[in-house]
């Protein structure tokens, strides 16, 4: 996620032209930044699928409804954050 944030910040900088950042000037060579950005996006999509699969597995093991599970998980995360050392 950090990489996506850095790309966003980079592209929103006023002095950056995304065409120059993503595409090689003469077009004969592959764009390394575009390949990196594509890899990051693909990795994020795979992470979301994995996370969703883990959620589904935990819901089926516990036998709870999805909404009940989400509420319980949010409560657990909030309590862990409240007790975490600063």
Describe this structure in words.
- The protein is mainly α and 86 residues long.
- It has a domain at 46-86.
- Helices cover 74% and strands 0% of the residues.
- It is built from four helices and no strands.
Strand content: under 5%
* Structural category: mainly alpha
How far apart, in Å, are the first and last alpha carbons? 23 Å
Oligomer status: single chain
| Uncertain regions spanning at least 5 consecutive residues | none
State the helix count.
4
Radius of gyration: 20 Å
* Whole-number mean pLDDT: 79
3D shape: elongated
Number of strands: 0
Q: Helices and strands, in N-to-C order?
A: HHHH
> Helical proportion?
over 70%
What secondary-structure arrangement, pairings included, does this model have?
Blueprint: H1 2-11, H2 18-22, H3 32-62, H4 66-83
What is this entry, summarized?
The chain is mostly helical and 86 residues long. It has four helices and no strands.
From the structure above, extract its key features:
0% strand, 86 residues, 74% helix
């Amino acid at each position: 996620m950090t990489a996506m944030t850095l790309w966003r910040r980079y592209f929103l900088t006023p002095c950056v032209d995304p065409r120059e950042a993503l595409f090689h000037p003469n077009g004969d060579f592959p764009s390394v930044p575009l390949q990196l950005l594509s890899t990051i996006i693909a990795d994020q999509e795979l992470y979301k699928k994995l996370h969703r699969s883990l959620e589904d597995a935990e819901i089926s093991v516990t036998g709870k409804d999805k909404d009940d599970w989400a509420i319980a998980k949010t409560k657990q995360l909030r309590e862990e954050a409240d007790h975490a050392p600063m």
